[in-house]
Amino acid sequence: MFDLLANPNRFKKITNKLEPSLLVISLLFIIFGLYFSLFDSPKDYQQGDAVRIMYVHVPSAWLASFLYLSLAISSIFYLVWKHPLADLISSSIAPIGALFSILTLITGSLWGKPMWGTWWVWDARLTSMLILFFFYLGFILLHNAFERKVDGSKSASVLAIIGIINLPIIKFSVDWWHTLHQPASILKFDGPSIDNQMLLPLTLMIIGFGLFSLYLIIVNVKTKLIEKKCEALILKLNLKELL
Amino acid sequence: MNSVYSSWSSIFIAHIKRDILTNSRSLIDLISIVGFMILIIILFPLGLGPIQEKLNIVSNAVIWVGLILAIMPSLEKLLQKDFENGWLDQIATSPIPLEIIMLSKGISYWLIMLIPLIITSPIFAIFLDMDLKNIPWLVISISSGSLAISLIGLSGSALILGARRGNILLPILIIPLMTPILIFGVGVNEAIKINASPYGNLFLLLALTLVYLVISPFISALLVRIAIGR
Amino acid sequence: MLYLKDLTIQRGNKIVFSNFNAVIRSGSTTLIKGKNGSGKSTLLRAIAGFTPLEGGVIKQNKNDIFKNNEEWVKNLIFLDTKNGLSKDLTVAENLNAWLTIKGWSSNKEVIKMALKSVSMEKYADLYISQCSEGLKKRAALSRLYLSFSNNVDFWILDEPTNELDTSSLVLFKKLVFKFLKQNGTIILASHDPTIIEKKV
């Protein structure tokens, strides 16, 4: 997959074809997912309609975590094989991952109000998500903290890897510290414990969110490729002026 | 092979001595760390009001949080000084692995900056009305966790080498990494408060210190190589 | 012999050298001339093994200096405009610390001789923070004297003479001649080509 896309031109060729269909498919998933989650799924017998926040909250939380994993993997690719495209991919993933972690925090706090009676509860998973957000933030800030742009890439990639080593430790310590949240209910060994009618919209939303963020990442990478070309052109023009 | 390791260990110790000597000449860093710590401690009674019971509840956490905050300004300089004056270049052209030097940096920082805070921590505890039975455990927990804090700080200071406004960036990058240390460190004394065993938290704290003792020199050396290669 | 083959070196996004080739003979002085910002320092930092290459190899005889870095730095003294001196230590303490990380034996006598070679023996106990730029540069150059007792083959020097006055320049040249006589190799970047004109 990576070798296939490693050449920027080939990357553009493939993604140009992929891009519009990705957008349409992901929007279809999200629209159907939203319909089912808002109108055609049962209320929770305890939580009532408030449970519908879950259909945004859970997919965002999953994506925020999954995108961080992808960020770390592409950072490793960049550090080991030094391919510039890998750096473009990680720096494109970071803001989207940060956005999903914010979305998780906001929906979590909205969900918390009817459930726990306050906007914010220091529950283990919300706290871990908050820390994950700071890893995204740190990556973005460090990536942009250097005078010459590429100088930040390597240090930020190392930060992403430090993050992936430390996140399990942080997760464990925060769980140790406190847990108010209901136990995980989808990934259980004895099969899902939530209603099938709830599982359908949740699956649709997760796939929709996933495809949509892939679309956003591709657009982001392409923009950065164009930006890079512009910079190279400017550099060339400046040199000609000097000569 | 044996002689290689013995020469590594003598260079390792010599470099710690050099760092201690360097820092003993300008005590400003040390004075400002302890001063900052005292000010953080003072802020809490001022903010909470002079009610003894409230202070007693938060004392343990305040000292730990104060410790983490107080070292932030000095961490920025930990590697930056030697980066700017070219010492790291000289180390890179010496036969000793950079990882060993980084380990010595982490340990010398701990000796110079954190030992004074460990020694003074009982005084802060008394200021904050901590129960006497908790004070020895406070010292034990800080002693076990502070080496991990300085090693995390070392990688943080390697991350910002050559960055603009690294001093502002540094806390955002490394405070999240320090949360487990804070949780287990505070946990030791919280267990004592409810008459439970403190050893669960203490062992986790020591285990984390060992983990960072292993990974931090490698990560810091990697980052220093990146910085001097720019 | 040092072989530079097809070097491509980047600084930021800018390629400063592409497919650069050179062979540096043992016992010679190579002067790298160029304007400020033309990449002199970048090239020297690549040869010293700091800046990773985008392409090509640097070999000392048959040894790739990036793959077998330890072997390479053992025989090398690198000195650039940042002198590598801690301002909170004295001249002698700095030299002592440097000797230890190089893994070379250090004692008062060695340090005294090294400082004498750049006529710095009077300033041994002066803190670097109290030194002028010229004194700092001389303190850094005193390391070169230590090559003679420690089998150093290469000097990489970036603008070594910028802050030197005439009398120190003479001392520096003395060190250079002695080193060349022992078949040492010098790679030097400077915008002042007169430093080596007396050679030949």
Biggest β-sheet of chain B: count, sense, barrel? none
Share of helical residues of chain A: over 70%
Summarize the largest interface: chains and residue counts: B-C, 30 and 30 residues
As residue ranges, the low-confidence spans of chain A are: 179-183, 187-192
Give the biggest sheet of chain A.
none
- Mean pLDDT across every amino acid position of chain B: 91
As a percent range, the share of strand residues of chain A is: under 5%
Q: How is the quaternary structure best described?
A: heterotrimer
- Report Rg of chain A: 21 Å
Strand content of chain B: under 5%
- The whole-number mean of residue pLDDT values of chain A reads 83
Characterise this structure:
The complex is a heterotrimer of chains A (243), B (230) and C (200). With 243 residues, chain A is mostly helical. Chain A contains seven helices and no strands. Chain A has one domain. Chain B has 230 residues and is mainly α. In chain B, helix 2 runs antiparallel to helix 3, helix 3 packs antiparallel against helix 5 and helix 3 runs antiparallel to helix 7. Chain B is globular, with a radius of gyration of 19 Å. Helix content of chain C is 32%, strand content 24%. Chain C has six helices and eight strands, in the order E-E-E-H-E-E-H-E-H-H-H-E-H-E. The mean pLDDT of chain C is 85. The chains are: A mainly alpha (243), B mainly alpha (230), C alpha/beta (200). At the B-C interface, helix 1, helix 3 and helix 4 of B face helix 2, strand 6 and helix 3 of C.
Which key terms come to mind for this protein?
heterotrimer; A: 243 residues; mainly alpha; 7 helices; 79% helix; globular; C: 200 residues; alpha/beta; Rossmann fold; four-stranded antiparallel β-sheet; 8 strands; 24% strand
List the helices and strands and how they pair.
The complex is a heterotrimer of chains A (243), B (230) and C (200).
Chain A: H1 2-5, H2 8-39, H3 54-81, H4 84-116, H5 124-143, H6 151-177, H7 196-242
Helix pairs in contact in A: 2-7, 3-4, 3-6, 3-7, 4-5, 4-7, 5-6
Chain B: H1 2-25, H2 28-48, H3 52-84, H4 87-92, H5 98-127, H6 135-159, H7 166-193, H8 199-228
Chain C: E1 2-11, E2 14-24, E3 29-32, H1 40-47, E4 55-60, E5 63-64, H2 69-74, E6 76-79, H3 91-102, H4 108-117, H5 133-145, E7 154-158, H6 166-181, E8 185-189
Helix pairs in contact in C: 3-5, 4-5
